Amino acid sequence: LVRARLGVVRTQHVRRGGSRVRMQSAREEEEEEEDVARAVEKKNGGKEKKEREKEQKEESVENVVIIGSGPAGYTAAIYAARANMRPLLFEGVAAGIPGGQLMTTTEVENFPGFADGITGPELMMQMRAQAARWGAQIITDDITSVDFAGGPPYTLKASDRDGDIKAHAVIVATGASAKRLGIETEEAFWSRGVSACAICDGAAPMFRDRVLAVIGGGDSACEEAVYLTKYASKVHLLVRGTQLRASKALQDRVLQHPGVTVHFDVSVKEFIGDAGARMPSRRKVRSTGSESETDDESESRSRAQTSSASPLSAVRLVKNSTGTFEHLECSGVFYAIGHTPNTSLFRSSPLELDVAGYIKVQPGTVATNLPGVFAAGDVQDHEWRQAITAAGTGCMAALSAERYLSKNKIGIEYHQEVVLGEDDASRRAATKERSSQSSSDDDEAPRESDTRDNFDIEKTSHRGSFALRKLYHESHRPVVVKYISKSCGPCRQLSPIISAVVREFDGDIHYVEIDIEEDPDIAESAGVSGTPTIQIFLNKGLIETRNGVLMKSRLRAMFNSAVAQAKKELLETASY
Question: Catalytic annotation on 200?
Answer without folding.
Answer: no
